[in-house]
TrEMBL record:
Coiled coil: none annotated. The keyword Transcription applies. This is Helix-turn-helix domain-containing protein. It comes from the Bacteria.
Length: 263
């Protein structure tokens, strides 16, 4: 899979939201490499705000919320993390990476920001701060729901792919193309499901090794030859199986079997 280029965290691409932590606690977490609770949460979203409403750089600041129209056209809404009803742990799926935002939500956010910037000086600051907190809640909850649904859908398809692999491990012809065809998805989509550094081929090899280990350690299968087990696990030959197995476990299949059966 060739990953799509991600926009810079300070300048989200059109249609994308970036959520990040801000404040002293976040800075300490970045320095120390731990996951401290942030003082504030920042939402960055590119949305059109007419110059007749506010010039780039316009900023409204309150105790618990800040609205800043950046020169790049990105709106940055900063709110107190302690004031949100969503915990930082719940927000982790959204943090520090671009998340696609529905057009309706972008439109609502842009409209709310434009109205606040246009009338902010004439509104009660405490009420306006609560309004901005509510706006942040709405955006975060909506984006989080969509993102969790997306992750759940990916996880479900990934499970389907793994189940198919396990059911067909004995087939030497099993490949990414065959798996994708069986699941009615593209090869690219299949690679997206396993975009975790291991990939489809390595995952398939790992499943074959795990099955081989189970067969070699089973006393009921002690009479089966190494070549037969290699075929059952989808390896093209006994030598190829032995090399792959030794590389993965540090032992030959025969050594592994003897040790497992003795134990």
């Amino acid at each position: 899979m060739v990953p799509m280029a991600e926009p810079h965290p300070d300048v989200p691409a059109s249609g994308y939201l970036v959520v990040r932590a801000s404040g002293a606690a976040a800075a300490r977490a970045a320095i120390l490499g731990n996951a401290g609770e942030p003082d504030r949460v920042q939402l960055l979203l590119r949305c059109p705000v007419p110059r007749t409403v506010a010039e780039p750089g316009a900023k409204l600041t309150f105790a618990d919320a800040t609205l800043h129209l950046q020169p790049s056209g990105v709106v940055m809404l900063t709110v107190s993390a302690a004031k949100l009803s969503i915990s930082f742990a719940e927000l982790r799926p959204l943090m520090f990476r671009p998340v696609e935002v529905d057009a309706a939500l972008r439109s609502l956010f842009a409209s709310a920001v434009a109205h606040v910037l246009a009338a902010g000086a004439r509104l009660d600051p405490h009420g306006l701060a609560h309004h901005l907190l509510g706006l942040a809640e709405l955006v975060l909850r909506s984006a989080l729901r969509v993102e969790l649904d997306r992750v759940d859908a990916l996880a479900a398809r990934r499970r389907e792919a793994l189940e198919y692999m396990r059911a067909h491990l004995g087939e030497q012809s099993l490949s990414a193309d065959k798996i994708a065809e069986a699941l009615y998805i593209s090869r690219r989509r299949l690679y997206q499901l396993f975009d975790d550094g291991q990939g489809v081929s390595e995952r398939l090899k790992g499943l074959r090794i795990e099955r081989a280990k189970a067969l070699l350690a089973d006393p009921a299968k002690a009479g089966r030859g190494i070549a037969e087990i290699a075929r059952d696990c989808g390896f093209t030959s006994a030598p190829h199986f032995s090399r792959t197995f030794r590389h993965a476990t540090g032992r030959t299949p025969r050594e592994y079997r003897e040790r497992a059966l003795r134990g």
